Amino acid sequence: MIVKVISAGNFWDGLTDAPVGPREILVQDGVIQEIGTTVAAPAGAVRIDLSDKLVMPGLIDAHVHITSRSELPGGFWSYSSAAKALYGAEALKIHLNNGFTTVRDCGDMDVTGYTIQDIKHAVDSGLIEGARLITSGHMISPRGGHMDLTTLLNPVCNATQNCLADGPDEIRSTVRNEIKWEADWIKFAASGGFSSPSDDPVYVAYTQAEMNVLVETASQQDRPVAAHVMGDEAVKMAVTAGVRSIEHGSLASQATIDLIEAKGVFVILTHYAVVRGARFADDDQYWITCGATPAAKRKVRKYKDTLLETAANFAKSQVKLVFGTDLGLHDYRVTGAKEFGEMVENGVAPVRALKAATSVAAEMLSRDDLGVLAPGKTADIIAVAGNPFDDITAVETVAFVMKAGKVYKEI
Question: What residue stretches are annotated with the Amidohydrolase-related domain (predicted)?
C-alpha cells in the first residue's frame, strides 16, 4: 500500500481534552506508523494537505439498524431479505461518507433471515464499500415484547420470527443460534419501548432468571450482551444480569445510574431518537414532521419529564457514555452526527460527546485498534473544517474520510 502523509492544521487523538495543534501523520499498510510535528516520509509518499482542517479519529456509531428504514412505507417489514441487504449496503456508505468508519448494528430487521451477516462479509471482503460493521444479530424478545413484529399483523397470519424466545431453554437455543450465524454481540429486549405498538417502556420483558440465562449463555461463547431497556426496574435487572451495554436506559432513576456507574456498564442514550421527542413533546408540528406513530407520541408525552430528568442525570454522572443514534429506526436522511448536538443540549460536555464516539466506544467494543490516533492503530481518520470543541455542529460536515488507510472522501 502507498505511504501517505497527512498534514493536519489541528489534531485530536481521541483521548486528550482538547486539540494539540498542527501534526503530521504517517500511514502505511492501513496503520498509523508515526505522528509528530513533522515525520520522515519516504520518497514517493502521497501527501494529503489538511492544514486548514481539524483531524481526528474516525467516528463510531454504536447503535444503528442498517436493515431498517423508517422513512420508507410501513410495509418495509415485509420487504425481501435481498431488498434489506441493498438498503443495508447503502446505509453503510451513508455512515462512511458522514465520517463514521465503524458502526455496530443493534438488531437485524430481517426477522426471517440473517442478512446482517451477509452485509458484514460483503464489507470485509471489499465487495461493497462502507463503514466497518460489528453485528448484534437480531434483538431477542419475548412474545408480545418490543421486537415481536407479529403484533403488526392479523392473528390469522400466524407469522414466525427467528428472534422470539420465552423461558430459559428457548432463550439458550436462540442465543446459540445467533452465535452460530456469527453475531459479534447478543442483543435482547429487556423492556418495552416507545416505537413498539404493543407494550410500554416500563414493561419488564423477562424475569431475572431469564436475563441471567441469556447473559450466561452468551458469555460461555465470549459474546458481550447489549440490552434494549427503558424502564428503571428492567435496567436494574439487566445490569444485575451482567450486560456490557445499556441501550437507551431512558427512564433510569438516580439510584440505578449510580449502580451502572459502580458496575462500569456502558450506556448508549440515543438522545436524538428518544430524548429529543421529550423536549418537543407538546409541539404538534414536531410530531407531524418527525413521522412518529400515534403510540410513540402518546408514550413520549406520558414520560417526557422523566426522559429529560434521566438524560440530565446521566450527563452529571461518571457513567461511560457511548455514542449511538438508532438510525434506521429513525430517518437515514438525517446525518447521525446530529446526535452530538442532542447530547450537548442535554448537558453532555462536547469533549465527552466526542470521546463517546471514539475512544470510549472503542473501549466498549474491545477494539483497541480503533477510536484513537496513535502509532500502531488502524488508520481511521477524518477531518472537519471547524472546531467541534467550540461548536459541536462542526462534526455534521465531514470533509475527509480515511478508513484503514484508504481515502473514501476528500473535499
Answer: 54-407
